[in-house]
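Table S7 (text form). Paired inputs.
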Amino acid sequence: MGCAVAELKWDDMRVFLAVARAESLSGGARALRLDPATLGRRVSRLEDALGAVLFVKSPQGYALTSAGERLMSRAVEVETAIRGARDDASGTQEGLTGQIRIGAPDGCANYLLPQVCSAICAENPGLEVQIVALPRVFNLSKREADMAITVSPPSTGRLTSQHLTEYHLHLMASREYLRAHPITALDQVKDHPVIGYIPDLIFDAELDYVSEIGGPRAALASNSVSVQINWARSGAGLVIGHDFARPFAPELERVLPDQFSLKRSFYLVRHADDRNIPRLGRFAAELVARVPSEVARLEAR
């Protein structure tokens, strides 16, 4: 397959990448705005040209074969080189332009990134930012996002990570709840409804806050930080919440802050191949400069 790869056109690579990332013809067709049948024929022609089967087709979708995995690595390198060349040609030194997609846990996506990204966009009118808030790990190799913010550095894959900032969490409850149910000691927490994550949907051990208080299983649970915060705002019980979210939830007060607190970190994760794309590097530098100060500003309030 090595000789044939050198003769491939970028359009062939685009077709292959779209199907590989979507893991289906229909998803790849949507990404390329093509008819699925047309895309299927092009995949078949590509496999014939290479003399290799690139996908295992099943009712569940298209999975890469070992030959497909090898081509994926080459295709991503070509894609990165083309994106870098386009950045150079578009004169991005005069300002950030184009579309950048960043993935983040929904607490960060809801309470930090909107104002940070708005400030970056205000200084770069040609920039379009998409924030994807999902309570799971992002697959940067499949280009679900150009970069991601995570609560743990990655341990596998061709990824680079940079410590972004620390943040703090405390027990919180609404003033109304605390007036009706005063709490004066940490061992009383077990007698109150606790709001937290759905246990089997916790995608990173750093998010298992409830276990830190040795408390009961969460009586009210969601995979969304915003839902947890809103439950607490309504007086439903106690939540271990981000201090940077409190300015957006004025009904909440910290509970026993001198007895219980947590400290966690955010990391900025990028695909290793993207280091040669100046536009992404400059956007990442803006995040590194702005996110810590925004956390500090909100926590101080």
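Next pair, protein 2 of 2.
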Amino acid sequence: MSDKVCAVVVTYNRKNLLLECLKALRKQTRPIQGLYLIDNASTDGTPELLLEKGYITELPPQNIEEPWEKEFIIQNLTDGEEIKLYYVRMHENTGGAGGFYEGVKRGYEKGYDWLWLMDDDAEPKEDALESLSIYFKNSNIVGLAGSVLLPNRTIAIYHRGKINFKKVFPLIQIPLQLQEYQKQTVEIDMASFVGLLVRRNAIEKIGFPKKDFYIHHDDIEYCIRLRSIGKILLVPKSIIFHKKASKTEVEKFFLGRRKLRKNFSEYWLTYYGIRNLVWLGKRYSKSKTLFYYQMFKFLLRQILGIILLDDNKLKRIKFIINAYIDGLQGKFDNKKPKRLLYEK
């Protein structure tokens, strides 16, 4: 087994889902050799539970001012071989993008041949990595990914697909047709960080995920860079389950139609998706005229929705406009959303 694989798992306040993810990684029939666990300053007792379950034997210090890393040894549940577990306790929540930046950088510096990226709510099937490893020797492949299934075993189509550089707002990705999943392999342009396996020499050329994104669309941005130097291959028989977190939207009705709206206390999270998509659209769209038309059209629709359905209307409108402007100007102040909404 010449290729060394290191999983990179980013977690924040989902300790029970994390344990299920870690167990699935330990049960792989094609074992992993390393596991970078990036704990984004969880406040739900994640380190204590990891200690209780034997994943770590030492708790991180309190009140750290920079990331703290410690290496531990766990066993693969399939063959009993050792897995090096690198537990990184972040000093603050850097979002999914910051967590994957940290994990990819550290895993790359440790010399692993492949890095398998996933959130803490992912659960790869036992033979998921084995099905992907068949293609390790294809030198023109820079990324591998399997099918993402929801708990009800339906395919989560937006996790794998093509990228459309002509019509880039409000979506840049085009999901694969379901019949594509019947093939042995499919060339794709993007795969979410729910089970994307990245080759080391690709990281050497394109660098690490863009930590400035904080959350949302960092995986699309990274795949655009990956595709510039090689192929990303979907292997449908490799399966990873995605246990989506519960939604926080509020249900409202307008003219008899059901609308889901974000609660004001959670509204700050919408900033990152808008800003990052605007940045991607401005940078990569083939038709700038079409991009600006689509962007302004979508902005007007959002403002209208706020006026008709939401509370704190002026704050929300100002907030949304700031997200668009910051995306156009490439400003990545990730503490700004909460300042805009909640500080007097």
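The CA atoms of residues 127 and 165 lie 34 Å apart.
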